[in-house]
Amino acid sequence: MLIGCVLIIIRGNFFSAFIYSCKRFFRSINKKEQIIQETEGRQVELPSVNRQIPSPKPWIINGFSFCILSLLLSLLMVYSGR
User: Of 5, 37, 53, 60, which shows the fewest CB atoms inside 10 Å?
Assistant: First the structure.
């Protein structure tokens, strides 16, 4: 389930705003880069993710099925041990 949740976060571009903010901050600190940007008239753009990220559904389904199987086996062990 954890892998599936991480894939959902990555597919939703959750970190794009953080990466954009870090790039903008470090470029504003660096005076040389700031002068180059002003001279060229460049703007910092949002990063785009071009990677193919697998679907998280199989991971989440497997996680839930293992969780339920573990719960059932635990209950079986507890109540059959009496």
Answer: 53
Residues 6+ apart with CB under 8 A from 24: 44
Distance from C-alpha of 38 to C-alpha of 57, rounded to nearest angstrom? 45
State the CB neighbour count (10 A cutoff) for residue 80: 7
User: How confident is the model over 9-30, as a mean pLDDT?
Assistant: 80
Give the pLDDT of residue 8.
85
List the structure tokens of 45: 């753009």
Is residue 22 within 8 A of residue 44, CB to CB? The reply is no
- Structure tokens that stand for 21 in this block: 């903010």
Give this prediction's pTM. 0.51
Contact between 4 and 56 under an 8 Å Cβ cutoff? The reply is yes
Residue 72 backbone dihedrals phi, psi, to 5 degrees: -65, -45
